[in-house]
Known about the structure:
Strand order of the largest sheet: 2-1-3-4
Order of helices and strands: EHEHEEHH
Largest sheet: 4 strands, mixed
Helix content: 40-55%
Radius of gyration: 12 Å
Number of domains: 1
CATH class: Alpha Beta
Number of strands: 4
Distance between the termini: 9 Å
Shape: globular
Structural class: alpha+beta
CATH topology: Glutaredoxin
Strand content: 15-25%
Amino acid sequence: MTAKVVMYSTAVCPYCQRAEALLKARGVTAIEKIRVDLDPARRDEMIEKTGRRTVPQIYIGDTHVGGFDDLSALDREGRLAPLLAA
């Protein structure tokens, strides 16, 4: 079983698509996507929670991972799999 994954995203964001592909490659079968392009209030929520304005913003469980670059770095360092398994 993997931890719950939530991703703030938009429809046309290439980094969102890359993040989703990486997560699926690591065994994540369900990603709760919050489309900030469809709901401006959710964008405000994302900015308040993360302090960041760009997408994707990814949470694994209660941990704010950050964007795609942060996710990719975790994977390269071998720290993504244990976070997903938590």
